[in-house]
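Board work, copied verbatim: Transcriptional repressor NrdR
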Amino acid sequence: MHCPFCRHPDSRVVDSRTSDDGSSIRRRRQCPQCNRRFTTVETASLSVVKRSGATEPFSREKIANGVRKACQGRPVSEDDLALLAQKVEETLRSAGSAEIDAYEIGLAILGPLRELDEVAYLRFASVYQAFESLEDFEAAITVLRAEREERDGQGDETGSDAASTE
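↓ predict structure ↓
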């Protein structure tokens, strides 16, 4: 690591700490030449392989922006979007690969988005799962209803009858 002040090619680590929810390491360094201190931040890189074959660095902001479009008009806050982007990044990093296909990122968004807002989930899923007909939407809605009934009304017969007669 070159000193940013005198460009000496060496430095000594004075202190190391994890930061940003453990995904990076902050190091205080000291130059043996000029004795000035500076900070470096180390992160494991995660690259996105796009359909064209080009690669670019992973960006939580791009995740939030893409999901924000699906959440337009829905009761979803910026904090919710930031948390969703963090969950997606953690999921992708836990896969252990340094390069992730862009399509896989879209699929990784679906689970947390379903928990956040079902309508936004359907909007997003219609793109990433290539819905081609009304039947595709109906099938996705049927799955969501079944999951909700399983989660919310496991013994409530009246709630499921009312939903099925619509």
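The CA atoms of residues 113 and 157 lie 28 Å apart.
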